[in-house]
Amino acid sequence: RFCLPLVLASLPAMATGEEIAPALQDSWGDFWLFRFFVNAAGYASIVVPGFLLIQYFKRRNYLETGRGICFPVIKSCVFGSEVKSVHQEDGSLPPRAEPTESSTARQVFKLLFCAAGLQASYLTWGVLQERVMTRTYGATETDPGEKFTDSQFLVFMNRILAFTVAGLYCALTKQPRHGAPMYKYSFASLSNILSSWCQYEALKYISFPTQVLAKASKVIPVMMMGKLVSRKSYEYWEYLTAALISVGVSMFLLSSAPNRHVSTVTTFSGVVLLAGYIIFDSFTSNWQDALFTYKMSPVQMMFGVNVFSCLFTVGSLLEQGALLESVRFMARHSEFTAHAVLLSVCSACGQLFIFYTINQFGAAVFTIIMTLRQAFAILLSCLIYGHTVTVVGGLGIAVVFMALFLRVYARSRMKKRSKKLPPGETPVQKV
């Protein structure tokens, strides 16, 4: 029982040969891996009993034998309506593939709407994220101020607002009949919480340009996760264009941020956290894409995922005693309160656009839009702060747009070819 604290105590020193900020070296309890395990233990205290209850109701054949006041709730959480099987046997695509009869102009407008909403939400969110995680609050001439360090509380703030917005929208508007068992949302919820936590936590160990660079290379992991989670098939040109987009954006980002400060050097811990973010985020988008095979709206998806996100995060925060401490920090610093609320608003709006985009165009198209967002963030920085774009950076932009043009051209050719196929032959499913 004494081995785990000793191992965790030695990990910060083993994580990197570079210096880590002194605030991160106060104790082994401040190290990210220890906090990750503590958070995971909090989630497990909810997941494990929930799993046992689901297995209990299924083994008891509760759907046929159950009755009473709790029956509708248990049926919705454990069994659902199972309406998706009707749509899978005939090989049809999920609801987002239905607008095939709509005009090209309408589809282009939808794509531009999704892209603009995602850009506005997450460009603002990115600026606030860096401010909250890397700067101090309450600094004066005599007081250096203090940093906010609990990434999980920020995740909770984001999810509670998204849950409220989605719940109100579902209550005030007519929604499709819900068929998915509620527990299936917990998978996307858990991976979404972990990816967000890794993203916030990584900024303590790496520079912001490095984090942006990692996000720009997510297309291929998302496609690989699509094969594992949704059993999707891709054409060679989809792999080629995904690789070209990642390479082009990477060229631009690297050439636009050649100078690094000593305080933001890349560390091994930061690289591991970024890898965790990419893996968890890739799973989240593909699992949500698979859930859309049930007849549900994007807002219902948002509500279902954030119900579990709020449950997991508030449970873990209460078990750690961190919720009250974070509230006290908000009371001491009104500026942080304003930033946290605006951060949550951008996150909630961004989630609406995420679900709608995945529902309409699939996980890979969504990732391409978010990849381009990284380039727009650097372009915005160049316009505001006067950074110059190098030749390599301009070449990277050209590669990105060339890849996008190639992807659009190849997709249109595939659509024309699929229309000419015999009735019994089914084309390769795309995202």
TrEMBL record:
Protein family according to the UniProt entry: Belongs to the nucleotide-sugar transporter family. SLC35B subfamily.
Location in the cell: Membrane
Membrane topology term: Multi-pass membrane protein
Protein name according to UniProt: Adenosine 3'-phospho 5'-phosphosulfate transporter 1
PANTHER family found in the cross-reference section: ADENOSINE 3'-PHOSPHO 5'-PHOSPHOSULFATE TRANSPORTER 1 (PTHR10778:SF13), SOLUTE CARRIER FAMILY 35 MEMBER B (PTHR10778)
Native source species: Manacus vitellinus (golden-collared manakin)
Chief subcellular location: membrane
Protein origin, superkingdom: Eukaryota
Keywords annotated in UniProt: Membrane, Signal, Transmembrane, Transmembrane helix, Transport
Keyword Ribonucleoprotein: no
Keyword Transport: yes
GO MF, any single term: 3'-phosphoadenosine 5'-phosphosulfate transmembrane transporter activity
